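Page 47, continued from p. 46.
Same chain as before, 444 aa.
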Amino acid sequence: MNSTSGGRTVLDMNAYQWTVLFAAWLGWGFDVFDGLLFNYVAPTCVPTLLHIPLGTPEAKAAALQWTGILTSVLLIGWAVGGVVFGAVADRLGRTRTLLLTMLLYALGTAACAFAPNIWVLLACRIVASLGIGGEWAAGASMVAEVVPEHRRVEAGALLYTSAPVGLFLATYVTWFIQGVAFSGSPEVSWRYVFLCGLIPAGVAFLVRLFVKEPERWKAVATDLPPRLSELFSPALRSRTLSGLGMAVTALLMWWSCNAFLPLVASGLAAAEAKTLALEPQATTKLVESWKAIATNSFNLGGLIGTLLTVPVSKIFGRRVMFGAYFLASAAAILATFGLDMPGETRLYMYFLIGLTVFGVFGSFTYYLPELYPTRLRGTGAGFCYNAGRVIAAGGPFLVGHIASQGADSLKAALGVLFWVGVVPLLGMLLLPWVHETRDAVLED
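Result:
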């Protein structure tokens, strides 16, 4: 079956084109699911592996610091995997690369469940991060090349809706395992959470059965193999810098905010539990409940924000879309972490961060593939989307390090996160150099 067979259905796409979109959607959704599981279990996982009693100030400080370290390492591995497998996708094909990367991040995440210490956990996260980084370029390129030209924006945004869905799933799995099934055993419950990371392995084989290589890619597959240096040739340099600049800005604010979301929610819940004089088991349930409120608010906002990139970018163009989202992101971050408000209210404010900080990522799945010709599409999109993670890796590390030094770790974390709101304002300075792709035809 190919991309032109069958009758037209919803959004002028036939059954096979929807199959391709769904396959890439599953790949990216489970990518995010596996990538963020650690953030949800860090408050119990890190102290357990470091042999620090749970619930103590030392445990909270260690969780903050190691969340920053492990998130930064994840981003660096993600960057390496994205650049390497982006080039692999251009050489070996989109479908093969999608299968390989999904297996890599599934096995790497599941292996975390058996980590005897923090260093083995770090090694397993590195393995998973290579696959997590590589999956995006293969999936985004495959969708862009298979769907109709005039539906590329819609398809790209729909592809990214799997990210908040993946986070919804991670939130539910963590809540059920740590807050319900094993609420009385926090020192081991996180291991069962990581085991759920194996789910994408089964999905990967289904992808291989039903999805073929795009005709666009096969038409140029015998050409000269892509080289990373070509992205900085005179013809493509401005496009590469445009994509990289927007991605770095978005990545810095997303990872700085999201990496510490469970810890902020846990800290707010612990403070509330202390005020209400709750018993330990009741405190655990409150912590998991408040983490779910924050993450669900963030994810719901992200889902809506992702879809809103479609009308904004199609009507006003990519440059205006980035400017609007960055300005709104700054307002959301500064308000959420800077205003004085009740703890539970602050959790719901994560909806606005999701709407803006998370939502803008819905554009990268169509914007970055638009910047490059077919033989360089995976390489270019993978480089722009992932190379910026090396720079973005400094965000979580810095936030975690500074916050872990304060006597009141929650207050310190909120104080540092407030200044993350400056990042999108700086990103707006790059808008004059954004390469506009509205109404442009995908290059062969």
